[in-house]
User: Fold these one by one.
Assistant:
Number 1:
Amino acid sequence: MIYRKMQARDIDKLCQIEEECFSMPWHRESFEEMLNNRCALFLVAEDDNSVVCAYAGLLAVLGEGEVCNIAVCSDRRSQGIGEQIVRKMIEIGRLEYGITDFTLEVRESNKPARNLYEKLGFVYEGSRPRFYKNPVEDAAIYWLRNQ
Ligand SMILES: CC(C)(COP(=O)(O)OP(=O)(O)OC[C@H]1O[C@@H](n2cnc3c(N)ncnc32)[C@H](O)[C@@H]1OP(=O)(O)O)[C@@H](O)C(=O)NCCC(=O)NCCS
């Protein structure tokens, strides 16, 4: 598995992963905007057969990194790919974008993702009521702060 920055040729596959994972998926235009945004860091995981099977993205604003999304293809989960891609994103975010603190929102009921973030040291700091739609649900807010 290699972890590399997103390129234009990845976008079709990323849209496919989004459709598979989320009730309100990102559209192609959103990924295209991220390609041209100097504050955006989007990584993909590509396997030995050059198949992209996961991605993770963040936006860097004034030293803080807002994690936008993380998704692993359903048939490639529980193989450590999600953990590796987030670790890589944090490492590059610190080194290349000068990010000290990272934050994210996740559906309260999304246990796999919450476990992953907590394993990586993110700390639950509160909730945003009814943040998500389709279905309506609160968001859990996490931070990974520079020690
Ligand atoms: C959340 C997600 C990215 C995890 O990716 P993954 O590659 O399957 O996760 P990994 O194999 O790297 O697991 C890392 C850790 O995550 C947690 N985890 C992953 N899958 C889990 C599951 N099914 N149940 C509980 N915890 C889980 C565990 O803490 C695990 O560590 P462990 O293996 O030592 O127990 C993946 O399930 C996914 O794409 N889900 C759909 C999209 C999504 O919800 N994204 C997050 C939006 S905020």
Number 2:
Amino acid sequence: MEAIVNHIKYTLSHSTFYSAKKSEFASVYNDNFTVKDFQKLPFTTKDEFSLNNDLFLAVDKNKVAEYSTTSGTSGTPVTVYLTKKDLNRLAKNEYDSLKLMGFTSKDIFQLMTTIDKQFMAGLAYYLGVQKLNAGIIRVGPGVIESQLKSILTYQPTALIAVPSFIISLINYAKQNAIDLNQTSVKSIVCIGEPIRKQDFSLNILGDKITSEWNVELFSTYASTEIGVAFSECKMHQGNHVNDDLAFVEVINETSDQPVKEGEIGEIVVTPLKTTGTPLIRYKTGDLAKAYYKKCACGKTSLRIGPIVGRKNQMIKFRGTTIYPNAIFDVLENFPEIQLYKVEISKDEFENDQIRILISTQNELLINDLNKKLKSKLKVTPQISFVEKEKLYNLVHTSKSRKPCKIEFI
Ligand SMILES: [Zn+2]
């Protein structure tokens, strides 16, 4: 509790945004401030952060060591200011995460995501690996040939990568008669995409990787605003919250109260010990199940299940709620569908309409897809054909670092 109180006091006295709201935080100055009191404090929303970005800066500009960005709610990037202290905190978080996954100073990591373009994750992993006294090869994103060459030359033991890119790597290795199982890589730290189902078994993406390549996959959850990543331990039963660096709540959508064991709620994070852009009760918009029971690894920290979806991406379709990930799962079960995009729009009665864009006109396949969607999701979306090149440009837009698989229009 002391770390929480210190964080709130620091934030209220340094952040222009929060000091304007000081009266709503009066209870913090009570000597008997408890978790129950904390749960009455106001939330901070993505919109508030995005619309008042500069007001969240809590230090003099000359104390800012790094300017990281993340996409805001309106599409314009939002800046997260990091001080030297925040960079050390970021390093400590990834160091703790990597240790939790069982890595040591003997490991060699190949970083397959960008470390520039103001991207926090690549930088965070770089710092964490340095703190672990392990080695890192900064190959960066893309260029499969260089990735493979680097694996063969430097013999990394682990990769840090977006899992869907690993599929391309596997396909490339196959085409070039390279047996990935003979390489030095033993595990992959997966970022940006879920690799597990709600029962913690691997989803289609995770399964596709491990069926071809005997590697241990670690799932992670992170967002730039909160400056922490939650990672799996070797038990693979949800992502552990780092208690020292974040106070995390999973709250019910309507009651704003913490959900019970195994229930779905919104992840709300108070990133402790942040100094450049401190936040209090930040609503991430991400929905997941909460697990409070002790993990088989012995740790008692809260665990977060695989992300079910984003709060603003819930699709209300004829009375039922559908999460985009459920649609992706069906589509990714068809190896013939290499590329797709889901478009959600509103009809004249404000009901959500689902349209799936694919680049094949194979009628048998489309019939089969319709059947699968109907049996798994109880919906029959409209399926439209788009030329491959056009579809590629719709998915890989300059607006986002990740493939844009869904759009609300
Ligand atoms: Zn564990």
